[in-house]
Amino acid sequence: MQDALEQYTRKQSLEIHGIPESAYTSTEEAVLKVAQALDVPITADDIDISHKLNSKGEKSILVKFTSHKTKTKLYKKRAGLNHVKIADLYPEASAATRLEGKKKFY
User: Fold this and answer.
1) Which of 18, 22, 92, 102 has the fewest CB atoms nearer than 10 Å to its CB?
2) Is residue 76 part of a domain?
3) Residue 17 CB burial class (10 angstroms; 0-12, 13-18, ≥19)
4) CB 86 within 8 A of CB 97
5) 56: Cβ–Cβ under 8 A, 6 or more apart, which residues?
6) What's the whole-number mean pLDDT along residues 15-29?
7) Number of folded domains in the chain?
8) What string of DSSP letters covers 4-35?
């Protein structure tokens, strides 16, 4: 029962990998940039909370949306990230940040 409850609470959450920490000033900004690159209309009001996950090496971003439908829209378009580079999301990023960034995936 506890397992089902925990899974239900993650229904609106998404984990984003591959964006260097040095590229963005806030995790919310990073999520909005990814959505913009995928042509998914998301506003700051659609994001309940977002934060960095503490893990070894690369830090991923965990975002919880206000609605499951919003998360699904973004998740369905994730294949479009195959052609998106850090330089596309953050044209003003330094060369070191661009090299540090990998392809994003969910």
Assistant:
1) 92
2) yes
3) middle
4) yes
5) none
6) 88
7) 1
8) HHHHHHTTTEEEEB---GGG-S-HHHHHHHHH
Residue 106 resides in a domain: no
The C-alpha atoms of residue 26 and residue 49 are separated, in whole angstroms, by 11
Residue 106 confidence (pLDDT) above 50 = no
**Rounded-to-integer distance, Cα 68 and Cα 64, Å:** 9
Compute how many other C-beta atoms are within 10 angstroms of the C-beta atom of residue 72. Answer: 14
> Would you say residue 57 lies in a domain?
yes
Report the predicted TM-score, pTM, of the whole model to 2 decimal places.
0.79
Domain limits for position 83: 2-100
Q: How far apart are CA 20 and CA 4, in angstroms?
A: 33
CATH number of residue 78's parent domain: 3.30.70
Say if 45 falls within a structural domain. Answer: yes
